[in-house]
Amino acid sequence: MLLCGNSLGLESLPALLFSDTMKLLPTLLLTVLLAPPAQAARRIGEAEVRTGANGVPCFTISAREEQRGGAPDFQSMTVSDSSGKPMWKMTMPRERTFPVTHSMCIPYAGRVQALPQTPAAVLEAGTAYQALIEARKARNAGSPLRYLARFCLAPEAGSVGAQAPSMRIRSNCPPAEHSVQSQAR
User: Fold this and answer.
1) Of 65, 90, 107, 144, whose Cβ has the fewest other Cβ atoms within 10 Å?
2) pLDDT grade, residue 43 (50/70/90)?
């Protein structure tokens, strides 16, 4: 049986292979392969919040982050509420820094006279906060420049009396809508 008419036969295959569209395909493929790789955004590292002296929160990088990329050089520390309002900030002068290791901890409202910082606001129980440690340019290209932790303060069970209640740090905080309402009280 013979096919007649406008059917695509073998004689039209060379025309298809050398069409303008097919000539463009290898050029596009080479362009994609030879293009410089796009710079990926750096990931945000994991910070930790611990209970420091006198029950005050203190901040550091996680042990996993230190094992993965070493100790970053400290640039600044910011604690904000869930709306982004800064509660406290400390920044290193350009000519000074120190390595942030997992074994050390930066205390909330730490008073190092030589460092520029803002006055610290009182942290309230049940309010969600975030701690951000910013590092100077990393030695390792894959190391983060920012380390983030979310936390809130919760009263310790049985802490009653005339003294200020003792607090513990939690990473599972109420949703942001609830924490903003609790600040408005």
Assistant:
1) 107
2) confident
